Amino acid sequence: MKNTPEALRTTIRRRLRRERILLAVMFVAWASLVALITTDALPALRGDVRASGFLSGFMIGMFTVAAGITARQVLNLRRALQDETELRRFLARENDELQAHLEREVARAYVQLLPALAVVAVFVGALVGFESMVSVAATLVFLALVLLAVKIYYKQRLAAPAAE
Fold first, then answer.
1. Cα separation of 50 and 123, whole Å?
2. Taking the CB of residue 80, how many other CB atoms lie within 10 A of it?
3. What's the average model confidence in pLDDT over 58-76?
4. How far apart are CA 77 and CA 93, in angstroms?
5. In sequence order, which residues have a C-beta less than 8 Å from that of residue 42 and are 6 or more positions away?
6. CA 4, CA 6: separation in Å to the nearest integer?
7. Distances from the Cα of 143 to the Cαs of 22, 48, 60, 115, 135, in angstroms?
8. Which of 95, 114, 142 is the last residue of a domain?
9. Are residues 140 and 150 located together in one domain of the fold?
10. pTM surpassing 0.70?
């Protein structure tokens, strides 16, 4: 991919569209969670009042933080599209080799540690109860499938320009 300002603007527009969609999905999920919590319709929150209060606050907080980070990214991308100086800063950050190397190493370490962490998570879930163990295992299978899908997507996407 070329690192010209126009190519970067196209990339930023594409990323901005994805980030906006992600922000909309997060907002809908957040609103749904708030509605379920306030109507006491979420089965996982029935039982002990203190535990239910903690879990509902924790989930709302996690969604709020994730949406805030995504909203900040949307603002940064919009600013980069509107201002030439910000575009240059964004271009410098995108082409920083040290940062790219760090991201590759973090991703590699994460993928290598994931199986060991999965075993520990399933074991801890088993100590809590059967349902907890099954929930952790199902979540891990889902995350592994998402990781596989993303890997296949990028493998096909990066292999397509080479074929041309």
1. 26
2. 23
3. 89
4. 12
5. 33, 36, 56
6. 5
7. 17, 29, 21, 11, 12
8. 95
9. yes
10. no
